Structure prediction request, 727 residues.
Amino acid sequence: MSLVTIRPSACPACAAAPAAEAQADHAEQPDARLLLSVPAVHCGGCIATIERDLADMAGVNSARLNLTLKRLSVDAKPGIGAQDIIARLAKLGYEAHEMDAGIISMTATEKQGRDLLMRVGVSGFAMMNVMLLSVAVWAGAEGPTRDLFHLISALIAIPTVAFAGQPFFRNAWQAARAGRMDMDGPISIAILLTLIISIYESLLSGAHAYFEAVVMLIFFLLVGRYLDFRARAVARSAAQELSALEVPRATRLSEGAEREVSVADLAVGDVVLVRPGGRVPVDGVVLSGQSELDRALLTGETLPVFASEGHVVSAGEVNLTGPLQVRVTAAGKDSSLHRMADLVATAESARMRYTTIAERAAAAYAPSIPILAFAAFVVWMYISGGDLRLSLNIAVASLIITCPCALGLAVPAVVTSASGKLFRKGLLIKDGTALERLAEVDTVVFDKTGTLTMGTPEPTNLGAHPPQALQVALTLAEGSSHPLSQALARALRAQAVVPVGMDAISEIAGYGMEGTWQGQRVRLGRADWVGAEPSDTTAAYLSIGGAIHPFTFADQLRAGAAEVVAALQAQGKSVRLISGDVPAAVQDLAARVGITDWQAGALPAEKAAQVSELQAAGHKVLMVGDGLNDTVALSVAHVSISPASAMDAARAASDMVLLGRDLRPVADAVRMSGTAMQRIRENLWQSGIYNAIFVPIALFGFATPLWAAFVMSLSSISVTLNALRLK
Prediction:
């Protein structure tokens, strides 16, 4: 029977709460004894429903849901455990998983974003005020009036530079200490020199000061820096998410007594009890009990796997129907789930070494700026006979004109514009380099369960059975929580089938449902249990007396699955399917969507190895997957996409998240990435042409720092307008 659980609507309050953003900053969470991941929440109504319900739960002191991270923090009395909260949420229609709060550490990402945005606001406010004062000077203010306006401008600009310029000064200082030069070096020199020469001119009652230029320079550069930050910000580490999904506690059996202990305290040879509905906390071997295990998130198998004495189980699998006693063979850092997290961490660090086109341009561009300005200063000191004031003005003008505002905006402006368009199509870009990497892709690898399919089984042959068989099947199916039973019951109810009266209905763990109808025993479940011949087709078998009625199932295709495959192939991309499911199911799906190159039975490490081999052969791979079994492959791939319905760890490992059910935005993103890269190259060429024209003007002394700042602003605006053409 299939693994996928059919659940009620996950958001009964969504329709009444359209303003999800009103609670988006519901981010500060109290210290909690329990931390759970709730992947299905997506609006303010979800927050209100969950928090209100848990507030009424006996033993719960407080509950706070973070919508951005989809995490629920619960402060509860010692008698309340994670399973109690999970069961409560299940009644509301929300699936939840316990996380280890000790592993999840709050990153500085959100704080860094707020800090950068605050500096943008301060510099923008200062720029507007200094510009008002400068307009008065440009309009003809002279003498003491001009000096007063310059003094007021200095009082605004100096603290603004000290506060808003810190990101540039800090990075420049760190680079200098390391013996290298990056773009923040010449930026910092330009800011400080412009400020110093402006103060110098003001003290000498000079006709020109350039306070508006320095705050304008900081403002435009910070805007570019913030756009780049927002494009690059990745909320979480996939390796951290994977580690947190390891079950933090387990029920250890010792001399017949049950005791809840930390998984870290378990040793090889210990015996743990895994109750129905619980996640297996360790790698081990079943000592007693029988059940069915949900392995889809780990291996991609759509069918639950029967487990009884002697069967091997892995950390992260879900026990579906019966209690199991498991002897520990590996726990904590030695478990298969933790080893997967280590692989993800290694892949993530390798991906972070990717060098963007902007970084390559900056590496070539940065050292030349201060050298050029210093050369201008030396030459003009010689030409002018030692006129320090003139030489400094020309050097500062050269620094401002060559300062890479346009270069700093060239990439983030395009990425932000493309991200907005793709977001409206239903695709969220998490990483600023993702579009650039996506433009290089020549091979697309899809997972099957939950990616090309919805992971929900659908009966395919209801019309082949007599009405009485359908009625009996509905009666038995409604008594089971098994995913195939739930799918069958839902389909039969939709056809207005009415259940029959039945006695002695019971569920046999790992096998199915049975009961007594009209004096004869009836069963719905596994083929060998009901006396049927097993087949490769996903099916549940009904036996009535000696008659066998097989109900076959097929996984529901995700909307746009066949269309996205055709669109990618039309773009010249090679499309492959790699799944952990059985060959028959994978072959059937491949034929339905038009993929000829497919592989079945792939373990998580094998998926990652396949992707790595393709990339070692010179291919650039886009991986599209959703389960824990895809997480390593998603991290290894050149670029990756996961659906919003994916596990938290898979979404964290991905560069992009598909927000809706339709897969077609994947093809749109691949196509748009090429257009975006064209716009980026145009912007970089535009920046180069701008410098080729105006740098000589500055070097020959025809540009004041103010005029240089004006030209720099025009260049930044033109780059931004070119990026907006994507919309």
